[in-house]
Amino acid sequence: MTGYEQLAKKLVQRAKKKGAKQAEAFIEAGRQSSCRVRDGEIEDLTEATSKGVGLRVITKDHRLGFAYTSDFEPSSLEGFVDRALQLAQAAAPNKLNGLPTLKELGKLGDTGELYDPAVANLAGDWKIKAALEMEKAGKAVDPRITTFDNVGAGDYVSEVYVASSEGMSAGYAGTYVYLAASPVASEKGQLQTSYWIDYKRFLADLDSPESVGREAARRAVRMLGAKRAKTQQVPVIFDPLVASSFVNNIAGAADGNAIYKNSSIFVSKLGKRLAPETVTVVDDGLLKRGLGTSPFDGEGVATRRTALIDKGVLRNYLYDSFTARKAKAKTTGNASRGYSSLPHIGTNNLYLEPGTRTPEELVREVKNGFYVTAMLGSGANPVTGDYSRGANGLWIENGELTYAVQEVTVAGNLLQMLQDLDGIGNDLQFRGSSGAPTLRFKQLTISGD
């Protein structure tokens, strides 16, 4: 047992001894480092370590107290436990306050490896070399790439431990490594930026710095000469990067708290068909090598695979234990948190399952339409389903990508968009903990000139 796991248990025991009915300690410790370069020079190089513990206590009369600290000195931890209990005394009682029970905690599943020694022991100059290589490769793509807004590389090593009075005591370590590039292309006074990123747990899975730099540059250059399009209704295709944000909108509407408050378009839609059979949206906390993979969630509940939409039918909402208790439902292992916050509903690895069509086929079947490569704004309003975002991309004419389009708005409604999903690519990509393939919608409104 590590020192952190012992400490978590000790804090729980101390809180119980001082009168808490239930107690839970959540410890996070990590190290992160990053490097940014500009025009062949190092712009900044940082390395930071952090650690902290959050303590939740619940009293016999259902009052909740929460405190956190990054001071692990034994003398200050004594007062820290007292502080959590004092805060509980000042809180209003709520019968729904409580920690996940042993039954709710469940049996921890198999996540596979989450920790890569190659990332944990990366040479200090790896980030510098990788960032410089990205910039150099990006500039070599086209002379119109004049500079980069941002080029960076970094790595994280983190440990998480949870102990609770209900029988939870476990921890895990994980690693992450990333590359990101955001070039600027310039021609005839017009500037276009784009970006590309790769983010993985394992160094061996990471794209090469050259390929990230080149893809970022290619995406910026193809936007040169962009113009606005006329207002019209046409088929619209989202590239995987944009499609993953659409999948996040679906998860937002399936948030158990929004459902409980009656502020989601998915209220009372469980078991109803919302999309074609080809559409399956999954949140999977056990996805091998996934960025959002972990054996347990932010309150120690075993993570699992939850299909939100299964073959077009809405099957599940997402819950943490508190919201599940309110809604008379069961937690889905979707409590998300850091040591300095109470749990809230979040996603693990969220994605829309790939189809069988190539992205090229999806484009080829469109006579006149819009291929979206970047979006601004937050997307769908979960209460009304209204979807409206600023978009850039490429116009499709007779099945081919032609000229660049910018400063238009793509609008629709989330429920209608799900029904109109008439093409799903075979190119599922994760550039973070949310993923999607290329998606084609039968018709959306483009507002431009």
UniProtKB/TrEMBL annotation:
- In what residue span(s) does the Metalloprotease TldD/E N-terminal domain sit? 23-88
| InterPro entries in the cross-refs | Metalloprtase-TldD/E_C, Metalloprtase-TldD/E_cen_dom, Metalloprtase-TldD/E_N, PmbA, TldD/PmbA_N, TldD/PmbA_sf
- Pfam families the UniProt entry points to: PmbA_TldD_1st, PmbA_TldD_2nd, PmbA_TldD_3rd
**Gene Ontology terms describing biological process:** proteolysis
Q: Which SUPFAM superfamilies match?
A: Putative modulator of DNA gyrase, PmbA/TldD (SSF111283)
Instruction: List, alphabetically, the Gene3D superfamilies matched.
Output: PmbA/TldD superfamily
GO terms for CC?
cytosol
Q: Where is the Metalloprotease TldD/E C-terminal domain?
A: 231-448
Which residues are in the Metalloprotease TldD/E central domain?
Answer: 125-224
GO molecular function terms here? Answer: metallopeptidase activity
Q: What is the similarity comment for this entry? A: Belongs to the peptidase U62 family.
Q: Which PANTHER family match?
A: METALLOPROTEASE PMBA
- Can you say what this protein is called? PmbA protein
